[in-house]
Amino acid sequence: MVKSGKGGPIDCAVRDAIAGSAIPPAARAAPQWVETMRRRVEAEEQQRTAQQGLGKPISSAEVAGHRVVAIGNTVHFSKGWRTFPDFLSYMVGRFFGGEWGNAELRKSEEEMHPIALWYRRNALLQAKHAGKPGEVFSTPETGAARAFLELGYNLYLLEHNAELQQRLINRLKQRDQFLGVLSELRVAGFFVRAGFSVKFHDETDRTTSHCEYDGRRIETGKTFSVEVKTRHWTAFPKNDAEGRRAIRGAVADLLFRALKKHADAERIVFVELAMPDEDSTQSEGPWWRDAAMDAIRAAAERIRAQGREPPSATVVVSNFPYHYHLESTRAVVSLAVDGIGPTDFRAGLHGTVREALHFRERHVDFLALWNSIEAHRNIPATFDGSSGHLLSVDGQAPRLLVGERYEVPDADGATVLATLVDAIAVPTERRMYGIYQKASGEQIICHVPMTDAEAKAYAEQPDTFFGVVKKQGSLKGPLELYDFFWESYRNTPKERLLEFMAPRPDLPALSALPQQELAEIYCEGLVHGVLAQQAARTGGNSTRT
Q1: Which phi and psi angles does 430 have, rounded to 5°?
Q2: CA within 13 Å, CB half, 210
Q3: What are the residues facing 70 on neighbouring strands?
Q4: Per DSSP, what are the bridge partners of residue 272?
Q5: Is 60 exceeded by the pLDDT of residue 214?
Q6: Residue 260: helix, strand or coil by DSSP?
Q7: Taken in order 283, 288, 290, 296, is the CA torsion positive or negative?
Q8: Residues in a beta bridge with 448
Q9: What are the φ and ψ backbone dihedral angles of 124, each rounded to 5 degrees?
Q10: 381, 387 in Cβ contact below 8 A?
Q11: Which of 202, 322, 373, 544 has the smallest number of Cβ neighbours within 10 A?
Q12: Collapsing DSSP states into helix, strand and coil, what is residue 269?
């Protein structure tokens, strides 16, 4: 594949034959494109899962000028779907039908069903920002736009990955059940994106109580019984003493009711507060968090007062306020987690790096869900996982992808065709530096300008920006640091580890430990060493997790 467009300047900052004749002729003759394509596929898959999560990939292609999307055995197509949000708008209309939607849109906004109101506000927003016909454009993510597209996304995820029952659509149309079903769909979407299958329970079965659905992690087979509760307020609480009392009472009541349901597996209870929150300035978390955590303990005491122990459950309290801030872009989503009953899952758990590591191992399945909620909170802009910021790049220089060929200036100033073998981005300079290799093996280092669109795409997915997987940026937190060291030392022979740890006074006791435990202790020591250095530089103490 050759890309030799001249849409932008290429400035040669440094020119040098870095490798030259050091590259063996056999290596130069090898089919490098095979390795390039392998790395490209790896990067594309990592970028796709970073956007779409671990559920089934979006099954889509362009055929004869149409965008085709397959869901199960059904194929949907249109000439108008340039972006994935275009398709999601169709999804909402498809499920609710034109007759119902048009009837709602004829009402005043005060009487209109929320879904129809979101559609109307989103349509007006798009009309305001639309460019030329057929041209891709972006809009601010207002509350109305987010609420409407998130509904479409969760409907799509369930139909594509699990089972979307008509009764859910019917309940969504009912104003008194709407908020509760919206929360159920949102949480089901969490599970799908985290790599879980979702199986809904039969709501018509009145012979026994049961949770909403089961979530089974495909990788490990671990199953959770999931119950979702939503608060319906007559008056929204405020950030004051009275408001915090209202939060405690609401969460305790909903949790108490949720734990009365029968569960076949380990429980996760989601409690959605469904109240306004805009442009919060709470740096240490939502204002309602402490009250919600107190409510979990209050629910446990209420159950004990009835002569029984509370069942074990992980409890997630959340607030998704998009639908209360339809014209705003400052709606604040917040989540907090804790445990109830005989579980060691507690918020604010402190300990050593190894204690945190073992905690992670015990709760690996829930933490996979929790981490996915944070990582996959955005709605994909494209069908294939590529960056939505790069959809409209007409007239620009070809994007830098490792393994592709580009026209660059050589040491004599002549334009030559060379393969990009490595690159880095420096967004603060609005530049990208690339190492290009000529057919002779000579290497050239040049830099190119970085557009605003490229800077935004790089900020979203820096590790795959250049078409290969390449870790960018610094490690975040003690456990990521531990994982970094573990990759290097997990298979180091015991004798070698003991050599590294020779200065320690407890070396005789360490000598009796198996290799894996010794490697854990050594990596933990390295983490504490790094944290101690950081603390010395900042004047703080950072040796606990």
Answers
A1: 55, 45
A2: 16
A3: 59, 75
A4: 230, 318
A5: yes
A6: coil
A7: negative
A8: 432
A9: -65, -40
A10: yes
A11: 202
A12: strand
| Percentage above 70 pLDDT, the chain | 87
CA–CA–CA angle 515, 518, 520 (5° rounding)? 110
* pLDDT tens readout for residues 53-106: 999 999 999 999 899 999 988 899 999 898 999 999 999 999 998 899 999 999
What is the Cα–Cα distance from 267 to 159, expressed in whole angstroms? 24
333, 499, 511 from 504: Cα distances, Å: 47, 10, 11
Quick: pLDDT tens for 402-424: 989 999 888 777 888 999 988 88
Per-residue pLDDT tens for 182-197? 999 999 999 999 999 9
Q: Is 221 left (phi over 0), alpha (psi -120 to 50) or beta?
A: left
Helix (H) or strand (E) holding 408: strand 405-409
Among candidate residues 305, 230, 314, the one with its CA nearest the CA of residue 272: 230
Helices (H), 376-514: 452-460, 477-489, 494-500, 507-511
DSSP 8-class letter at 72: T
By CB neighbour count within 10 A (0-12 exposed, 13-18 middle, 19+ buried), where does 315 fall?
buried
Contact residues for 501 (Cβ-Cβ < 8 A; gap 6+)? 507, 510, 518, 521, 522, 525
What is the three-class DSSP state of 385? coil
Identity of residue 362? R
**Residues 6 or more apart whose Cβ sits within 8 Å of residue 109:** 117, 120
Interacting residues of 445 by C-beta distance below 8 A, sequence separation 6+: 12, 13, 14, 15, 16, 18, 433, 434, 435, 436
DSSP run (H or E) holding 383:
none
Distances (CA, A) of 263 to 163, 342, 343, 369: 20, 15, 16, 19
Q: In angstroms, how far is the first alpha carbon of the chain from the final one? A: 48
d(CA 108, CA 118): 13
Q: 326 and 143 in contact (C-beta within 8 Å)?
A: yes
Q: What is the pLDDT of residues 468-489, one digit of tens each?
A: 988 876 666 788 888 888 888 8
Burial class (CB in 10 A: 0-12, 13-18, 19+), 222: middle
CB 443 within 8 A of CB 436: yes
DSSP structure string for 483-506: HHHHHHHTT--HHHHHHHTTT-TT
Is residue 525 within 8 Å of 353, Cβ to Cβ?
no
**Contacts for 354 with CB less than 8 Å, ≥ 6 apart:** 520, 521, 524
β-sheet bridge partners, residue 404: none
- Mind giving me the DSSP string for 317-349? EEE--GGG-TT-S-B--EEEEEEESS----TT-
Residue 10 burial class via C-beta count within 10 angstroms: exposed 0-12, middle 13-18, buried 19 and up:
middle
